[in-house]
Amino acid sequence: MTTAYHFIMRHLGLNRIGVRLTLSYAFILVMFIGIGLTTVDQIQSIARSNDRFRQIDMQRLRDVQELRSEFEGIGIQLLDVFTKSYETKNDLYLIIDARAEKIKKQFEKISEYELNREQKQALNTLVECNELFRSNYYEVLNEYALDDLVAAKKIYLERVEPARNTLLTEAQIFLDQEKNSFEMRQQEEEYKLKQMQLRVFMFSAVAILIGALLAFFTRRGVVQPLDVLEKSALRIADGDYESKVPPTRTTEVARVGNALNSMSEAIAQREREIEQLAYFDSLTHLPNRTMLLKQFENTSFQHKAMILMDVARLKTVNETLGFGTGDTVILETSRRIQTAILKFNREDLILTKFSGGMFAVLTPMLSVENSHQEIQELIATIDDNLNEPIRCGNHTVDVNLVYGIAICNQNTDQLNSLIRNAEVALYAAKAQTQAVVWYSDAQEASRLSHLSLLSDLRSAVHNSELQMWLQPKVKLADMRTYGFEALVRWQHPQRGFISPAEFVPFAERTGYISAVTKWMLEHALQSLQNWKTSHPELSIAVNVSTNDLRDQSFPDRVRELLEHYDVNPNNLKLELTESGIMEDPSSAIPLLQTLRDTGIGLSIDDFGTGHSSLAYLQKLPVSELKIDRSFVINIDQLPSTQRLVKTIVEMGHGLHLSVIAEGIETEAERDTLRELGCDSMQGYFASKPLHGEALQKWLDQLPKTPG
């Protein structure tokens, strides 16, 4: 039965909300139209009946009443025969004949109405009585015409009066019948009105009942499934993607339910993908840092150690062989680290992948002593697995890992702190070019010191805590000073003297070296401005960092400073490192050409220690090569070094460059460089860096340039 019901519902399309609602509204509309039409028809019928009642029945009742009045009138008129006198008898005859004629017409008029059987019988009896009465009262009139009033009176009393009474009685009976008929018709009309009201009420009640049933079935077939859809949607919104929308036979709701199920599955799949991206490394599929932090969010970190390891020279591999090769190196490194951990046979070791080529191992420890040994054994196992080069297509890459290790102490209460300590150790290993570094409190102190160093350096630039020291550059031919190199010094108000070797690399790493360069340029140009009249031939060389060479607006800023201080560009020199130029020669060379076009002299500092090639060297718009001190130390005692320096000098001269050697500390070194053809020198043998009074004394002993 149920199957047949559902087949009919599906065949007729009643399982569709649209069909159900259309049929429901159509049925209700038809019901109300039917009620309206029926009501209108009943009202029209009652109106017609009322019209008939008013026009016919009431008129007939009035006619019957008038007929009875005529009967009474003619009787009274006959009495006038005995009570009144008429001038002529004809007047009396005319009056009685007129009344008789009027009674006749009334009878004819009444007989034309639709009468029932009793009314017809009463009317016939009344006609008969009227004929009898008429014949009798004419005899009275005849006797009256003969002036026999006694005979007339006798006839009136014996025959006319009884006939008149009978006539009036029958007329009253007929009138009563008409009144009864009138009342019955009135009751009939009232009954019809009540029947119409009852039918309208019943139709309305049936319509309301059917509407309620349709609403019930609509709610059951539409609203309830929609409630189920709403609850399912709320569960999806709460993250419950497993519960499905139950099937329903309502087509539209079923389609929406299927769409919600599809949406739930799609969202669940995307959330799984997002979770995979959020908590796992996309390349190695290892848990990432976020996953590690989440996993140990509320875990005690006593007796745990963190090993951070980073693939050395990965940046070089990416730049040289491409990022595809770098990814292959990371994947193979990950596989070999996992193999080493499996060999170590410790299930409680957790390997994760951090950014770049950095991996992390979180390991429990029973004691500090045993942990040191276990960690060293684990590192040795990993290094053994990485001894064999990694094959990347047509290339093989040797992979080494740099390790930073941190062990929980009483101050390590969170995993983030443990990771941070391991990172401090890892960065120390890279800075010290060591393979393994264990975290110590001294590293933390150094890290905190460097954090405050940036803020202090900003204050030093703004508060003129920096100092510009100048070291003379001297021609080897006649030992004449022709310029200076500007060297930055920092006298900290609390820490005292801070070596450039400490804060300059830090400033380069943080990007604040550009502010230091600007400070040095301004002070150098200010000094040159002061020397314009006394020593216009002197120049000052300022060191330029790699960050400055990346800034395409640097030449414009230098030109603006030259214009501001009104200094001849030939008096300003800029010293550049080979490594800074070779980091991005395609961008650096056009920038240097712009500086050279301004008239500024350019010098390659520490030549011989970088990675420049002769192909690039001949393209560089420089005017000077500066031989690094490492080639100068004890050069008078090293013939091989002398040959190398001679080659550099001859190469420089061949490129039309002047050659200067730095770090000269002995007369023998100076004489040897002079014999090798070097043009100029700089070093303690000529002078240490000068500042303040010492610098002024040096300037005072120089020959004055004629004005």
TrEMBL record:
Residues 220-272 form the HAMP domain. One of its GO terms (cellular component) is membrane. InterPro entries: Cyclic-di-GMP_PDE-like (IPR050706), EAL_dom (IPR001633), EAL_sf (IPR035919), GGDEF_dom (IPR000160), HAMP_dom (IPR003660), HlyB_4HB_MCP (IPR024478), Nucleotide_cyclase (IPR029787), Rev_trsase/Diguanyl_cyclase (IPR043128). GO terms for biological process: signal transduction. Keywords: Membrane, Transmembrane, Transmembrane helix. The chain crosses the membrane at residues 17-40. SMART domains: EAL, GGDEF, HAMP. One of its GO terms (molecular function) is cyclic-guanylate-specific phosphodiesterase activity. Residues 302-442 form the GGDEF domain. Pfam families: 4HB_MCP_1, EAL, GGDEF, HAMP. Residues 450-703 form the EAL domain. This is EAL domain-containing protein.
